[in-house]
Amino acid sequence: MKVAEVNIPEWIIFIIENQFDSTLFPNLTLLSKPAQLLFLDLKKEKDFEYFKISKKKHYDDLGEIDTITQTSRFTRLCKENYSEFSILTSITGISYDQATRYCDWLEALVNQRRQIDIVISLPTVSMYEYVITNLDSLNTKGCALYNFIHCACVSQTKTDYNQWLGKTLVRADAYFPTALGLYNLQGNAAEMTNMEGIAKGGSFKHYAKDSFSDQVQNYSRAEEWLGFRYIVIIPTR
Residue 61 falls within a domain, yes or no? Predict the structure, then answer.
């Protein structure tokens, strides 16, 4: 299972690698203002102001692919106006069909370099029920352990922390991972399963109890709180 939710730079690469296919863009009205700026910039298809393409980083399974980093101009803009935003925020505002297209694209990309094909897909409901550990919402000092609605850290040293908690998405690898090394299984963005219309894990728009393994978030369209991660199935010889 992917250790974190698919993030904005990964989705940008997906769009670029598919020749800026307009049907792959998220619903911008569902994104935060800085995320909107990134995708509006991407629509220009060149001379980007807010991000840059670092050519050809090597990955064992993916080979050499482009990576995305933000420009100094975008960094200053966020520092001045959107201090809670990270370019590594989970991608949302996308549909089930778009998420499955991402999985198909990535699967084809990986299999170009493999002798035995792997399968990449959205996780099943039962997988989430197994890996979600039903983590308590607060640590012993009264601070949130994941991003959900109506929770504030009581620590006086983390006043800035409360400005975004339960109000917006955070970076996909925020907070501590589970024992399995998985980030944000609870809270942040509810995650699509392979059953269209059913998501698991809760989000920043849901209560902590909604993130537990026996809970479901239903959806019928793209949502500001709905993202995904994928699983990789490696067949045995």
Answer: yes
**pLDDT digit string (tens) for the chain, length 237 residues:** 999 999 999 999 999 999 999 999 999 999 999 999 999 999 999 999 999 988 655 555 555 677 899 999 999 999 999 988 999 999 999 999 999 999 999 999 888 877 888 899 999 999 999 999 999 898 877 888 899 998 777 766 666 667 788 889 999 999 999 999 999 999 999 999 999 999 999 999 999 999 999 999 999 999 999 999 999 998 876
Say if residues 137 and 148 touch (Cβ distance below 8 Å).
yes
DSSP 134-155: ---SB-TTS-BSS--SS-----
User: What radius of gyration do the chain's Cα atoms show?
Assistant: 18
Instruction: Name, in order, each residue with C-beta under 8 angstroms of 217's C-beta and a sequence gap of 6 or more.
Output: 190, 198, 199, 200, 201, 202, 203, 206, 210, 225, 226
* Helix spans in the chain (H): 8-17, 33-42, 72-81, 96-111, 125-131
Residue 188's domain spans which residues? 8-230
In a domain, 13, yes or no: yes
Residue 60 inside a domain? The answer is yes
204 neighbors 225 (Cβ within 8 angstroms): yes
| Total domains in the fold of the chain | 1
Q: What is the pTM of this model?
A: 0.93
Tokens representing residue 155 in the block? 């620590």
Phi (first) and psi of residue 75, to 5 degrees: -60, -45
